[in-house]
């Protein structure tokens, strides 16, 4: 796994793509769970868990000296947080 990560070019754009793609996939899974499990019908805060995964992945890339990828993931986390805020307010 580390060999595959070391092949990634240290680019903010790659981090932005990772930071937007991973929460998007997890949000689809959360949406499915919310719409199909009766007890979780009003558990919109599960979407925050999908966004919080970015914190772990950002820390992972920083630990492996891919600072620009980590910065891209951080930027994507802010974008996802603003989208969630918009979803909850409007």
TrEMBL record:
Residue ranges of the TM segments: 12-33, 45-62, 69-87
UniProtKB keywords: Membrane, Transmembrane, Transmembrane helix
Top-level taxon of origin: Bacteria
Name the record gives this protein: Stationary phase survival protein SurE
Organism per entry: Pedobacter lithocola
């Amino acid at each position: 796994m580390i060999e595959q990560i070391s092949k990634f070019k240290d680019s903010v754009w790659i981090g932005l793509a990772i930071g937007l793609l991973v929460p998007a996939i997890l949000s689809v899974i959360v949406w499915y769970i919310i719409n199909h499990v009766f007890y979780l019908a009003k558990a919109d805060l599960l979407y925050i868990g999908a966004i919080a995964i970015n914190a772990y992945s950002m820390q992972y890339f920083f630990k492996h000296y891919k600072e620009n990828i980590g910065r891209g993931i951080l930027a994507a986390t802010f974008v996802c947080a603003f989208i969630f805020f918009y979803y909850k307010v409007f």
